[in-house]
Amino acid sequence: KAGVTQTPRYLIKTRGQQVTLSCSPISGHRSVSWYQQTPGQGLQFLFEYFSETQRNKGNFPGRFSGRQFSNSRSEMNVSTLELGDSALYLCASSAGLAGGNEQFFGPGTRLTVL
Amino acid sequence: GEDVEQSLFLSVREGDSSVINCTYTDSSSTYLYWYKQEPGAGLQLLTYIFSNMDMKQDQRLTVLLNKKDKHLSLRIADTQTGDSAIYFCAETPPYGYNKLIFGAGTRLAVHP
Asked: Strand pairing of B71-76 and A104-105?
């Protein structure tokens, strides 16, 4: 079974631009969550999608948005990039409806904002 | 409130046992997890425990949960150089669906 894939793996953008990151979950998984990892703030939850609906959201500004498609693939978008958005963005997929399920992470997309 | 704390560094000799500790604040957390992250990689789920359990063993890994003190530990027996990585403790808050709240991570260094 293929694991969680994220594209692109690396991205360099400049302040003010926008970016879209993609995550393909494990086949059959319907839940996709996104996390931001930085040296200063650690791993922080962005949002979770299940069956195309956002059902949980972290404390991030509205510049961070996401969506999920009918095939469970998910994208997250960051508009008006700031230097502080430089981070490793990780997505995780899970089969289950409720918490307590195994969540499998992708390798991440490393975003650098110049 | 939601908070998970871990010590930042641990250094052990190859072959010894490693014990990584974690405390959490939300007593109603339902599941507690241990993840491993190697340089340049994503997170690998090592094991998890339901909050009504005291202990879980999986090969070289033993998880102990003290719910009264909100303390979670991960013991790695016969630690190898390949175990060098950052270990994250995480909890799932009630009604959080699949949301994970992570600690800052413990960097484990294994030396000969």
From this structure: unpaired
Predicted local distance difference test score (pLDDT) of residue A99: 57
Mutate: best of B33, B35, B97, partner A, most A CBs <10 A: B97
Please identify which residue in the block is written with the tokens 């631009």.
A17
> pLDDT digit string (tens) for A24-39?
999 999 999 999 999 9
> Of A30, A40, A23, nearest to A86 (Cα)?
A40
- DSSP strand pairing (A87-94 vs A104-105): antiparallel
Determine the residue type at A51: S
A38 touches chain B (CB under 8 A): no
Alpha carbon of A54: minimum distance to chain B alpha carbons (Å):
11
Q: Is the dihedral of CA B42, B47, B50, B53 positive or negative?
A: negative
Q: Between B50 and A71, name the one with better pLDDT.
A: A71
**End-to-end alpha-carbon separation of chain B, Å?**
41
* A43 contacts B88? CB cut-off 8 A: yes
CA distance B60 to A10: 35
Query: Phi, psi (5° rounding) for residue B30?
Result: -95, -45
Q: Cα separations (Å) of B31 from A58, B7, B89, B99?
A: 19, 20, 11, 11
- A9 CB within 8 Å of a chain B CB: no
